[in-house]
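Report of the visiting student (M.T.), summer placement. My assignment was to run the structure pipeline on a short list of targets and document each run. The first record concerns Ectoine/hydroxyectoine ABC transporter ATP-binding protein EhuA.
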Amino acid sequence: MPATEPTERTAPVITFENVVKRFGDHTVLDHLNFEVRKGERVTLIGPSGSGKTTILRLVMTLEDLTDGFIYINGEPFTYEMRNGRRVERRPKDVAKVATKIGMVFQQFNLFPNMTVLENIIEAPVHVLGKSKGEAVTRAKELLDLVGLADKVDAHPSRLSGGQQQRVAIARALAMDPEILLLDEVTSALDPELVGEVLGVLRNIAENTDITMLIVTHEMQFAQEVSHRVLMFDQGRIIEDAEPSVMFTNPQEKRTKDFLQAVL
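After the run finished, the structure tokens were exported:
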């Protein structure tokens, strides 16, 4: 069933509220505010160093907020206000919310000593507490979805880069995430392998209601799968538009210059 088009009334799944991220004296994100609604696919574009990947790493708790708040389904994620003070949430509360979030990285990060099947069932069994039988059944469904049903018993070293990335996508989906984060998932691939991975992601976008937050330099892919595209520069959103507008009639000169350089 195709994904439904989010509306203004759809509840936000991810909310950034006055988010600041600094590394030393360098401000990467500067009082950032935006929302991603349920079922929405939002792509972040912009020059390297503009803060796009940092956003994904904050949602994955791989980086700590300097200031501000992130909410997942309206619930404070890593920080909350308590007795008038901004305080960290308990690790077990953060971990509970984090199970709703999956991420596919630039690098595949598969366990080399495990088979494809073992890589996919590891987290569902040990983190979600699924039975091995249930996890295996779901893993085989997902391998079929990503076109690798015949690679169940293969080890990562026997797979191409594109195949490894498709396994990584299946592994993320095996956690049944509400939110899927995609960080330049084709940047480590040889050019001839990019299409097979983007094809899998298009299929997922068209046939699920998973909320997606995407960082990519593949502008054609961004045009095809996104409901919204956000243009970043120096830690701020400078333009937020539907793909049909962003890629044909951007309003900001910085956006126009960037797209002219990459298209």
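The mean pLDDT is 92. The two ends are 32 Å apart (CA to CA). I thank the supervising group for their guidance throughout the placement.
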